[in-house]
Here is the input.
Amino acid sequence: MKSRQISRFAWRHYCDASLSIRWLTRLRPAICPLEVVAESVPVGARVLDVGCGAGLLLSWLVESRSLASGVGIDLSQRAIEIAKSATSDSRLRFEVRRTQEPWPVGPFDVVTLVDVLHHVEPNRQRAFVKRIGEINPKRVILKDLDPRPRWKAWMNALHDFLMTRRRVYPRKMTEVAAWLAEDGFNVVRVERLDRLWYSHYLIEATRTTSPSAD
Ligand SMILES: C[S@@+](CC[C@H](N)C(=O)[O-])C[C@H]1O[C@@H](n2cnc3c(N)ncnc32)[C@H](O)[C@@H]1O
Here is the structure.
């Protein structure tokens, strides 16, 4: 199973990190369908991973999808330090940056966003999704958590509260897909990928030309 491969990779990749980070990254693929996200990334792509955390996805993409380049951004300095110290691959770059700040300079073929949107406050989520269009990627791969069923949303919220001591704001999969369509993307996949009590969903959207300015 691919998720186990990613777990084993994480254990090796973060060999110099603390034991808690090694275990957290090792367990992440068991609860989050990173392998489905990874398989949606074309081989040899240039990827921007927004809210990259400790950089597991990008490092796995280098291993499994031969990325041409990968840039990971996250507001957490600690996460970026872990990401940087785990790799010396010249194709990867990690930066402390909030999603509200200007995007890194591309070009990027693919933008990945894994479990970031539900950390953005509800009144900023629409603008956040709209800004993805500024990067002008050919493909957006957005993995997040749905607020339904309600009991799963509670379990997700509890998990996030225990991990970060912060509230989360899951947004409906159908609403996020509709936003991307409004922004000129062709939504090619909208799929629930529930795992344990986590109400995961994946949205894949493509765009062949940049929308005309109006
Ligand atoms: C649940 S973690 C997911 C990390 C990684 N994408 C993964 O799947 O392992 C969410 C990440 O989003 C980051 N994040 C949340 N809000 C952000 C923002 N406004 N700008 C940049 N990063 C943000 C957090 O610091 C955290 O590392």
